TrEMBL record:
Domain of life of the organism encoding this protein: Bacteria
InterPro entries on file: Metallo-B-lactamas, RibonucZ/Hydroxyglut_hydro
Organism: Fictibacillus halophilus
Occurrences of domain Metallo-beta-lactamase (ranges): 75-244
SUPFAM superfamilies membership: Metallo-hydrolase/oxidoreductase
Protein name: Metallo-beta-lactamase domain-containing protein
Pfam families, alphabetized: Lactamase_B
Length: 274
């Protein structure tokens, strides 16, 4: 019996004798099956290969980047937020080994794991059970969970306070349960958002974007983006980190509102004529 992992998205499945017939995460218009076909591995095989290393490094005070090299699956970055006696892992990466565990334990371990959306579920249950951490997933994305655990809490509504100054905010968009984390104490109490790619920082670091599917270039409706922008007005932040090491360090709230307007104007034919 093995907990097979899809090599394209990095998400782990329930224990089975045989490889799953297909990856439910990849066989959907927001993701894709590799042009080489569906392929599977296991965490044990990844460890035995000696290829991978998940590194934990300081991003800023009380915020640590958790990233696997070389990249695996989608290649996202997770983050560890050190709160006041309460550590939260934001999103997840697939590869975890004894070195990873030791590095995290030196920072005080993990009390909670919170996920932005299904593409980053990876080996979330391995992480939750290793660190005896509660795993928070919005109930609107419950159907995408590929490995169950009694560590999982399906939360509801638009916001959830994990600890003082650390809030989950469901803003939807990319997925119905699409969530970001509002770290009010971050950046000298000016506020930091960790967004996965529910909000994605673009090549020009003064702007962000919003998509239904990034690999397949499917945009969100203008009304959805307007709703997200309105929701963001209620949050406390001046800095944003996305899932791919892009950061807007200052005036991030203004960048989000400006970007939402540009996005909507483009969809409505008001930004340009071509």
């Amino acid at each position: 019996m093995h907990n097979y992992i899809c090599e394209t998205c990095g998400v782990q499945y329930e224990s089975s004798v045989n490889e799953p017939a297909a990856c439910t995460i990849c066989n959907e218009e927001r993701q894709y099956v590799s042009s080489k076909g569906q392929s599977w591995t296991t965490l044990e095989a990844m460890v035995e290969s000696g290829i991978y290393k998940t590194e934990v490094s300081v991003e800023e005070e009380n915020l640590y980047r958790v990233q696997t090299n070389p990249g695996f699956g989608i290649g996202q970055t997770a983050y560890l937020v050190k709160g006041n006696g309460y550590n939260v892992l934001w999103d997840c990466v697939t590869y975890i080994d004894e070195e990873t565990i030791e590095a995290i334990q030196q920072l005080g371990g993990i009390d909670a794991i919170a996920l932005s959306h299904p593409h980053y579920y990876s080996t979330q249950v391995e992480w939750a059970e290793t660190f005896d951490a509660t795993l928070y997933i919005h109930e609107d994305d419950k159907k995408w969970v590929t490995r169950t655990s009694d560590k999982i809490v399906f939360w509801s509504g638009d916001s959830l306070e994990l600890s003082e100054g650390i809030n989950l905010q469901r803003i939807g968009g990319h997925f119905k349960g699409g969530t970001i984390i509002e770290w009010v104490e971050g950046n000298n109490k000016q506020g930091v958002l960790l967004c996965g790619d529910i909000i994605r920082i673009v090549a020009d670091r003064e702007w962000v974007s919003f998509m239904y599917s990034y690999p397949n270039f499917i945009p969100l409706p203008s009304g959805t983006v307007e709703r997200i922008a309105h929701r963001m007005e209620d949050l406390t932040y001046t800095r944003i980190y996305d899932a791919f090491n892009r950061v807007i360090k200052e005036n991030a709230a203004e960048a989000v509102q400006r970007s939402a307007k540009r996005y909507v104007d483009a969809l409505n034919g008001e930004l340009f004529h071509t």
